[in-house]
Design goal:
Blueprint: H1 2-30, E1 51-52, E2 59-60, E3 66-69, E4 75-78, H2 81-89
Length: 103
């Protein structure tokens, strides 16, 4: 009796897994954002220009970055307030921006 109950539980789990797999395949074939029947893919129409953090070299989106305005009008972008403070603490921070590491 216990074998029958365990086997029925196992078959139920397997049936649900295969039905979810099948419905995902069918949904993927009919949905254009996954490159469905028409062959189109979900590619963004416009890219976002990223800037490099002069301290650690991380690329950041300017909208979400921590900004620092230099005295001569140039704006620098940092990945965090910690990197901005490290840049301010450097003795040459009033001169041209330093180059970060290459990724």
């Amino acid at each position: 009796m216990l074998r029958f109950i365990l086997l029925s539980i196992l078959l139920t789990i397997l049936f649900r897994a295969f039905s979810r797999l099948w419905s995902g395949i069918v949904r993927g074939l009919h949905d254009d954002s996954y490159g469905g029947a028409r062959g189109r893919t979900a590619v963004p129409q416009q890219g976002v220009q990223m800037v490099r953090d002069p301290v650690c070299g991380t690329f950041v989106v300017p909208v979400r970055a921590v900004a620092l305005m230099l005295p001569h009008g140039e704006r620098l972008f940092f990945c965090s307030a910690e990197c901005r403070d490290k840049y301010r603490a450097r003795p040459d921070s009033g001169t041209a921006p330093a180059h970060g590491r290459t990724a």
